[in-house]
Design a protein that fits this description.
Serine Threonine Protein Phosphatase 5, Tetratricopeptide repeat
């Protein structure tokens, strides 16, 4: 057996074992949650996420456990992660609203993506990549027929068809890149502590404004020691990055 085959077998075996381990942890988390062992369930679901960062069910159950534990900022963060991985989920927004009510916060939840973006992200980069490959194959066939056809009418037809396929290919490639970047980047974050300070500069001088638990901020640039963020009202402040959790 070649080294390459051995390596492939080892990798496949490792992935299977990892998936089985994550599944066991998930089942244990569900059992702990059902038994009202909320702290234990939170730890287990967090372990699942460490192994499978795109596990929507783990984030959703983690959010439910945080809610029961009255850690509403953490719950909002977990539900926001659900929406990032599954943009068309209908239950997570309602659960976020419940968290805001528990925090006595009058904020109304609103998605930070528009309808077209949610459609693109919900399809996912893998599907867009497959569609790009399929349209490329069709383009190859159209090019072949374009040069083979002698009838000018058919040539014009295949030329227009090729033009349309080219437009679709470009759109699919953009969607592939956009959805892939969206999944791997963190543009927003949630305040998960009761309150966090804001700063006027890198010297550590605190501003009067404090951000409350559950506040969503848009992550901007790094300064020397702080992170600039923008609030929903457009105001920009400096915070310690460790005080928020990215989504």
């Amino acid at each position: 057996m070649s080294r390459l085959k051995r390596l492939i077998i080892v990798l496949v075996s490792s992935l299977c074992a990892l998936h089985s381990y994550s599944s066991d942890l998930f089942d244990q988390g569900l059992k702990a949650a059902n038994d009202k062992k909320i702290t234990q369930a939170i730890n287990l679901f967090n372990q699942v996420i460490q192994q499978e960062q795109n596990n929507v069910a783990a984030y959703y159950n983690l959010g439910n456990c945080y809610y029961q534990n009255k850690s509403y900022g953490e719950a909002i963060w977990a539900y926001e992660r659900v929406l990032k991985l599954s943009p068309r989920d209908s239950e997570a927004p309602a659960n976020i609203e419940l968290c805001y009510k528990k925090l006595n916060d009058t904020s109304i939840w609103a998605p930070h993506t528009n309808g077209l973006q949610r459609l693109i992200y919900s399809v996912g980069p893998t599907t867009w990549a497959i569609l790009s490959i399929l349209i490329s194959i069709l383009m190859g066939i159209s090019i072949f027929l374009l040069f083979k056809m002698k009838n000018n009418s058919w040539k014009r037809f295949h030329f227009m068809l090729l033009f349309g396929e080219t437009v679709f290919l470009l759109a699919f490639l953009v969607a592939t890149n956009t959805s892939s970047t969206y999944l791997t980047s963190e543009r927003f974050a949630i305040v998960t502590q009761k309150t966090i300070p804001t700063y006027m500069n890198d010297l550590g001088e605190k501003a009067q404004l404090e951000l409350k638990e559950g506040t969503k901020v848009e992550l901007l640039t790094f300064t020397k020691s702080k992170r600039e963020v923008m609030l929903q009202d457009g105001q920009k402040v400096l915070i310690e990055e460790k005080d928020v959790r990215g989504i």
